[in-house]
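thought: fold this chain, then report.
action: predict
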Amino acid sequence: MTAESERIRDLYERHAHAWDRARAHEHLPVEAPWLDRFLSHVRPGGAVLDLGCGSGVPLARYMIEKGFKVTGVDSSPTLVALGRSRFPEHEWIVADMRNLALGRRFAGVLAWDSFFHLSPEDQQLMFPIFGEHTAAGGVLMYTSGTQHGEVLGTFQGEPLYHGSLDEAEYRALLRDHGFEILHYVADDPDCGNHTIWIARHGRA
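observation:
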């Protein structure tokens, strides 16, 4: 099933406009309370790295409207182009998060509904990348599953891959890469049953 994770990039590129239409109308996204919690740990006007930014709506737009500077990264050129067209004063990059090396750190790093499209093995390898892009005292927020494994959903009638580690593995990876867990909720019923992590990077 892990091979399905390699098809995610092409799937989102093929259906970029359908994905955009599905979310573009959400001015106040269901994720807003968690975004507010995340942003409360980011200095006002700070730089946020949005991994799997999609077309910039609704999440990047929400952060921009609150005065934060967003750098959006997505593997879909079409989605990145949509984000750039909407918010040209911010930065939009076509890249695979697994190979990201921007050479700078951010006050906040977000991987909402994107990191969990990676295989469990690739998720493990993301934690050094998270650490390399999170400033001292900066925060990371991502969504995950609750147990180690792989499942397939559907999007536009095609298989949609999700992978996960288990809670203990995430806790160990965060600790080993210098993060302190601030908030963790599994299957939050007020946020579409998302499992959400917020952690502060404690590097001196």
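thought: worth noting. The longest helix spans residues 120-133.
final: tokens above.
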